[in-house]
Amino acid sequence: METNGKRYQPRIIGFLCNWCSYTGADLAGVSRMKSAPNLRIIRVMCSGRVDPAFVLRAFRLGADGVLVAGCHPGDCHYKQGNFKALRRAMFLKRLLREFGVDERRLRLEWISASEGERFAQVTNEFTEQLRALGPLQLAAQPEAAAAAVQEVAAQ
Amino acid sequence: MSAKPKVAFYWCASCGGCEEAVVDLAEKVLDVVAAVDIVFWPVALDFKRHDVEAMPDGSILATFINGAIRMSEQEEMAHLLRRKSVVVVAFGSCAQLGGIPGLANFWSRDTIFHRVYQESPSTRNQQGTEPALETQVNGHAVTLPVFHETVRSLNQVIDVDYFLPGCAPTPKLLAQAVETLLSGNLPPKGSVLAPDTALCDECDRRETKPDRMMIKEFHRPHQVLANQEDCLLAQGLLCMGPATRAGCEARCVQGNMPCTGCFGPTSRVTDQGSKILSAIASIIDSTDEAEVSRILDSIPDPAGTFYRYSLPVSLLGGRRPEAIPR
After folding, report:
1. ipTM of predicted assembly, 2 dp
2. How far is B175 from chain A, CA to nearest CA, in Å?
3. B168 upstream amide cis, omega within 30 of 0
4. Does any CB of chain B come closer than 8 Å to the CB of residue A34?
């Protein structure tokens, strides 16, 4: 997708767990692997710490995609956290659909501490996928009472 | 003129249930009437808009406004009453959160008009007439208020001092609120005039809530016969208690119905729907994707269920306009 001759750059927020995925991202970095610069990483202690409201807030504040990454099933430092993340992500995708938001904008991945390459690959793939989907436009926030006033004036 | 403090009530996009809550004060309403002058209350008293316009600004001690804001006329009245009042209380779920009318934010004005005035099975409208802002009747122009694209909560339109939650607020909370206002000892602006704990905290069935709750299947209230003693969530009924503010004394649960969340979230939560979604996802008893998916199928409309009263104030606000089917 191109706008004004410039390639559209999606904004991605990534919630990466401290024990696996963040370390995996770190490994990609120290191994000098190239990956898209579109991902802004927030380190959390566990993917199970990612409150669904974090994801929605990221979308509200301008993210085009949200990545939640944690340890592979069975490897969670807190035993069950990544399963909670799985169920929340599956549920959230259903919720997003009802709001007319493409569920592919939320991505859950298992990335271990040794999978730097996988981290880079996921980042690149997700960036390309979001580029194809285009910018996310949510329903206007009704706080903008001014917008309603203009609406009346326009009629 | 008496020197009693003046109080007003007004309704916007609402069902009238909040007006019932005032009437449900029963004999206590006499104490209220003894203490204050009700200067405006369209549902019960014959005062008109021009009567309010004639009042000096700030002359009403408190105005209780119920209902969400959908029409321009409601918006105008909200602004007018704001000017005339020292304190404005958003009364009930619709004024506080957008309420049931706020669920309309899953659709656009056009889709709503089309559905309601043309498609619904009980409608016969061969000319395909839809409400217009102005129409000619016998040579006179007749006008209607503007139907806004979205439904808004009261504080998305005017400055609100206090919120009294509930669909409808309980008479007890209303009586307490009136007492508080008359005492002059006002809580901080923006306060929700109800306890700041989750409903489970005051639920009679609290003791029956298992330490570790795990659910294999969710049921809707009409699908099962819930027993009258145990935690409804533990019985697989979607009870919003964990993500809802206390204050109603768990009335629905007392009636053996799960909480639907009308009191909104506590002060630590901004988005009630995603909070209950998080809680429900945590107690699903499976780690297998296919099985989780099957269990989630037993909750057919998570957005409508979890944001039943709070869609307009939610983080996503409503359905993306581009995604609304024509």
Report:
1. 0.92
2. 30
3. yes
4. no
